## 1
Amino acid sequence: MAPTLSNEILLKAANEFSTPLYVYDEERIHFQYSKLSHAFRKSDVKIFYACKALSNINVLRILQQLGSGIDCVSLNEVQFALKAGFQSNKIIFTPNSVSIDDYKEAVDLKVNINIDNLDILQQFGNIYGNSYPVVVRINPHIMAGGNIKISTGHVDSKFGVSINQVSQILDIKKQTGVVIKGLHLHTGSEIKDLEVFINGLQLMLELSKQFDDLSVIDLGGGFKVPYKPDEKGSNVEELGAKLAEMLDAFKASTNKTFQIWFEPGKFLVSEAGYFLTKANVIKENPTRNFVGVDSGFNHLIRPMFYDAYHIITNISNPKGPVKTYNVVGNICETDTFAWDRELHEVNPGDILLFNNAGAYGFEMSSRFNSRARPAEVLVNKGQLKLIRRRETLEDLLQGQIL
């Protein structure tokens, strides 16, 4: 049974640290990591946490202690990872649209490098030759993901080298001597169909026959987590079994083996996160009931940006009569968290809980409208620990020059 935080603990957190507030359950992160590790136990699989989902250094340390690697998309994330205790060989640098200077710095830090365009591959090969093996990201022309904004492997995506340009990769390899140790793909987030991963692996196995130095196939991330009550997450146990079967068959026919890398983010932290807000006002007009809360899309942008659904509950009045509300924020633009949502009757001061807020919640927050970002709290076995203080006016002014 997956661990969850009780309403009592969450109300205690809201009372002690005020709202809006992000709360993370350390035990749930442990549970998710163990579930994933067990699913792929039959194959040589390495997990690299995609820290763009949630990069608080305390969360990074939890995953480092569990044995995870880490996937970083910026040099600052790489520095976070190093400060959290990750060894450089367990860090992947997977940037997009950065200059060769970023790659040079990543080389100095001795991390794994993932290159996603021909121009950088050419420059990198000219500079380093065969001295620094790299992974190359392939765009497989596979449409996947729960929303076009999070689909990254289709033919029109900016990510990766088109599968139709593999011959150009091989030309650069031959010309510069660059060693390509791995091939990578990532087709998107919220992938419901396991066949996306299976088809991706089959594609990578076929491509591998053209790369003599290949030892790694990186299948990215994007495992589905349930947001709505009737949804199911990715069946990672089934995927693990199919993965092992395919790798065994490939080894039997070619005598080649590969280490498989996965880069889950949301799968590891989404369900561990809770977002707490306070109802400031109840507004009733002829057509709608509104609950206005003490937050907005500056703190949780997913509903406005991706049309994402988060279960919302009134944990202050869990047995009250059910009414229908629009849950709206306090930003001076339209920021509706939920339309026509049935909630137990909400009164000013009640605490509303947003589930599945661990991934791309605080991480995508901003200071829009000059509103401070919220605090973050970690819960371990019922104990509350502040891991980021609430911002102040002084924080908002920091860096400004009069």
## 2
Amino acid sequence: MNKRTVILLSVLVVSLVAYLLVRRNSLSTMDPKLSEYGVKDTQSIDKIFISNNDNSGNATLIKQPNGVWRINNKFDAGSYKVSSLLSVLHNIEIKSPVGKENMEVVLKELILNGRKVEIYKKGTLYKTLYVGSSTEDMLGTMMYIKDDKTPYIIHIPGWNGYVTPYFRTDEKLWRSKEVFSDISENIAKIRVEWLETPQGSFEIDNTGPRPAILPLNGPENIAINKNILKAYLNQFTSLSYDDFPFNLSAFQIDSIYKTKPYVIISLTDKTGKTTIMAIYHKGIQIDTYTKEDENGLPLPYERDNYYAFVNNNAKEILQIQEFVFGKVMKDYSYFFESNSSKPQLN
């Protein structure tokens, strides 16, 4: 090894040691509790409050005794969305301090325009974070802990991205999309009313040793395929709406609600809670994929999507898919013994 190589290696070693000492001293000036941006014991978190100064609303997530999270004390929160946020809080770490030349500007921006996040454990405020925008390379997130003096760049080791989108303030983005989420053993009654073809309406009583089905309009002495009936009850475990049709005005939503539903599906569980979903035709749109039937004639309605209202909430319209809800949009004749050769639902 020549003399020049030795000198270069020595300079590199000295530089590395100096960098590590500066970084250690920078981090050591923080309160040890504050230096932990992540929350390792996320199981003890029972409340998260997220707010923003841009008038996009506030989100208060509260963990219920049964383990389900509620958003703004109105709706169940999506379990995947909450678990993703808790995973972020568990895994975030300090990547580096914000440069001194930018520290004052970044700190002011975080406090004024960042998302304020209050984390509670057992009902007591544990930590308050200010979550800002991403770094220029999109691999880190500006963040600041209340009462600290230094904003930091936060990241999740081994993951390329920034975490700001996980801290949502719009309650609609937190809501669970599930309309029905009941296993068959917890279902007491199901009622399906076809408004345009009443003879297809029926009711299932699942409170006895075996489920029983009765028509609401029509003869009762028809042999029923018990296997098809049992398979049908198993379809209510996870039925979710697709989205909110944001392109509709309040006037259009009200007009749809006042028309006659296509079908109404009601489910009562064994605690007595009833969920009612009224399903409506969705007219052909500009972006409708299938606009004509097999004979080339114009379709009056979409085949793949419907509108729906839940529990008579006239102000909130949902869009649902035939692919999802078609499993339970069946008429009385579907259960006839004569259909025993029909493929059973999974």
## 3
Amino acid sequence: MQEMNSKGLKKLTYIVNSAIIVMVLGLMLFFYLDHATFLVYFSIPTLFVYIFGYILIAKGLLSGYLTIVYFWLTLYMGLTTICLGYSYGFHLYSMSMIPIIYYTNYMAYKLNTKRVFTGLYSAIIILCYLLSTMRVAVNGPIYEENILYSQIFWMGNSLIVFAFLVFYTKYTVDTMIDSEKRLKEMSYVDRLTGLFNRHYMMERLDEAYNSINESMIAMIDIDDFKRINDVYGHNAGDYVLEKIALIMKENCKDCIISRWGGEEFLILINYGSGLDMMEKLREAVDKEKFVFDEKDIKVSVTIGLAVRNKDLSIDKWIQAADEKLYIGKTGGKNKVVE
């Protein structure tokens, strides 16, 4: 996955570098039409910088490429502002460059590559912005302002900067929300079985306890699970847990299924269908062939059921299901006790 992301990032960098070269050529033509001679000549080494950028990208030296790009963009922004004045809006790019730097650092973190000095680069950009705009405010631009060109470029540059800010702000917020969702999911899901864990189930039990709808819970235990681990090994035990989790998902539709701990599971069920559903589940496990390392493993489950009772706390409700499970365990196992 990391390799694929690196290739994707390299491809994206090629595209961005090509787009920058096209922009430099377009600006070079504009500088010529606007008689900004120095900026026309300055565009020539700028082109060579980005052509050299292709070599750095090809060799995977993205950190070096970004260092050169940030430095040159900052220099370019400062010189165009000094030459043309801030009425053209080139100084506005400093506002979009800083979020891009921090986004680049985020990508470097994700890809486990060398990170850039965001604080230093940000300080340099801010300093360049202040010096160039102050120079224009005190002495005016080097070249005489063309009102038409300045209006067009102010509008265009402003829209581009706002587009960058909107994109990176949206991307950052979406990333944060996605990370929060994944962290929440990870905190609610048992890694081995893919079922919900005890923490998640306790929240759902609290909701069910206070709901007007009738519900019941089923406490399920794998019979002789310790023997399975001892005889066939813990990998076989994990295999059994994973397979039973799949059988539960197939047979307990519209239920909330959790791994309660070890070889125990807890299922929250709508009241009417509980007993029949659990009997079908027990039969499905009993009939299923469990084969690990070419060895047949006999697996069964015992299930204890308890209907929600408003006179009992949630803990007592769970305890009632556990007591029914104990009756089933001591009464021969592989059965459902209501």
